[in-house]
UniProtKB/TrEMBL annotation:
Positions of ATP binding: G93, L94, S95, G96, A97, G98, K99, S100
Name assigned to this protein: Adenylyl-sulfate kinase
EC number(s) on file: 2.7.1.25
Family membership noted in the UniProt record: Belongs to the APS kinase family.
Gene designation: cysC
NCBIfam families: apsK, PRK03846.1
Amino acid sequence: MSGSAPAYPKLQRTGQAVPRKHRSAFTWRGVRLIFEPRVPNFAGITISAPTAGKDRRMADQVATNITWHEHSVNKDDRAKLNGHKGALLWFTGLSGAGKSTVANTVDHLLHQKGIHSFVLDGDNIRHGMNKNLGFSAEDRAENIRRIGEVGKLFVDAGIVTTTAFISPYRADRDAARALLDEGEFVEVYVKASLETCEDRDPKGLYKKARAGEIKGFTGIDDPYEAPENAEIVLDSDSKGIDELAGEVMTYLEEKGYFSA
Ligand SMILES: Nc1ncnc2c1ncn2[C@@H]1O[C@H](COP(=O)(O)OP(=O)(O)OP(=O)(O)O)[C@@H](O)[C@H]1O
Ligand SMILES: [Mg+2]
């Protein structure tokens, strides 16, 4: 398995129902090629996300009869009401690096300061919204895609949101970043060596991965692609939780997130 998220070709749908007798279709590398002589885009050929079957990817746009509805209360209005901006603090790092612990401490500090905040945490989300996803590269990509979308909604609602997911693949994190406006996505790299994390191993997962009981474990037999341009890098090998959380708060204060 490659370390990067699978690169999906750009998919396009016609949004038109074409009687079966007028079209022929076949699937090539997961992409549905539909020859639709009555639909004049792409010289009668439509590259389409399949609507059913094993070739359909969860991230594919399937619904077609949908229209974006502009809301009358916008993000600036909400920021003014709240007295602060929304942001998505995207914590990433190895299992055991300290993402959940630091994210929760930051959340607590934000709350004490009167900032509307919320934590989206990996294991918790996998109990509910993402309980149908595993740890294959594709499922990990879908897991992160959904978190990005949910995170964006939270930011639109004006909430300072922290996410605590390993999110090992750079492309997946960048895709989440791309959903948000400039400055709204703050990548927080919780940096800890594999040795430190294995030493902590609070869930006993590294032990199981070393024993071969868990396959595709990040850092053991699945890669972790460290951020190259994270807004914040936390040294979790040598600093304590409170100090690291303080660094995040200082960043937010200095960058003006605590004012509307
Ligand atoms: N900087 C640190 N100093 C001391 N202990 C830490 C530090 N960071 C994390 N820990 C401890 O390590 C353990 C793992 O931390 P945590 O659960 O936050 O990791 P995580 O990154 O969320 O891991 P996972 O991806 O498995 O959820 C916890 O017991 C936590 O208290
Ligand atoms: Mg965690």
